[in-house]
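Sharing in case it's useful to others searching the archive later.

Someone asked me privately for the predicted structure of Dimethylarginine dimethylaminohydrolase 1, so I'm posting the question and my answer publicly. Question first, with the sequence:
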Amino acid sequence: MSGSGTAPFGRGSPTQHPPAHTSRTPRFLGRRLHPDFVRRSPLQLPPGPPANPRAPSGRAGCARAGARSSGHAQSRGQGSGREQGSRCTTFAGCQGEPPGARRLGERCPHKTLPPRPAPPPRAMASLGHPATFGRATHVVVRALPESLAQQALRRTKGDEVDFARAERQHQLYVGVLGSKLGLQVVQLPADESLPDCVFVEDVAVVCEETALITRPGAPSRRKEADMMKEALENLQLNIVEMKDENATLDGGDVLFTGREFFVGLSKRTNQRGAEILADTFKDYAVSTVPVVDALHLKSFCSMAGPNLIAIGSSESAQKALKIMQQMSDHRYDKLTVPDDTAANCIYLNIPSKGHVLLHRTPEEYPESAKVYEKLKDHMLIPVSNSELEKVDGLLTCSSVLINKKVDS
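And my answer, the predicted structure tokens:
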């Protein structure tokens, strides 16, 4: 997909069609984790439908594991081109798989299950309504430790961080959120033993009055969660801690659209982490998206407004977008920018100012800035982030936005 600008995607879009596959093996890379159907262990599986009498012998081990996945319709060209299926939990005797192997994100290749009925309608939470999406009253940030310049994690070794300049850029960033936009800033102190601690987004996912304290994929970052937990407890949020040692989740892999969650499966976030998030925020559907050639899902996409997803132009970003299209039950607009990292922006809905968007400066990404300038109904605030980007930090990485209800 080339070019820049906005275009709709999701259910109901007449111009989007899933690609036709000639292989007999289904290739569904994304996965829907509806909270009612989160993974259970094999001993806890609910009773499934009667075995297909026409199924070949040796395939009786395929069972519904309760999670909905998305793919192509059985008859291509009919309906929406999507199919509700079920993942396959393969036990001993299933052809082509070792005993106990499990396929996640694919329809069972051995038999076709009837479409799963849609989950019961739920009352839309306040943040899910387009009129209130993006509201925030508080923001949690953290000071930069001097150890960041030499010890912060980075995917590739590159230019050295100018720490003094990084501090100035971070102070301006915090000033925009606090002084300019009126959010109440909760400033946490730096910890020299935690060089990545400024990237607070990765240790907490906050939605409404609930905060999930994550278990970051990098072991060196897990102690960062302690101070974040204390800060969110002081704000009287409901705290859920991710204690499963098999789970990892970075907040940078979590995209909340106001209607649903997309969770990137990356080197920092795994399937179990996504399942715990789905179990924490039960009022929202959760879908997983493979992340390739990037640190996090939000390394190439973010919300730029109600129902508006900013997305980069790279092949991996566009592939992730197609998976989100197939997985989503909602229709979103997309804003395509030439530079993947410039697609990471911060949208806020400030009652006194309207739609506000923090995005990268024209000096850093001139072509992407031109795309943002087309959003005439947004208050645009360019923000520099060149130094933290050297250690894989983008705009959303350095803050956790919270919308506290006003006590009546």
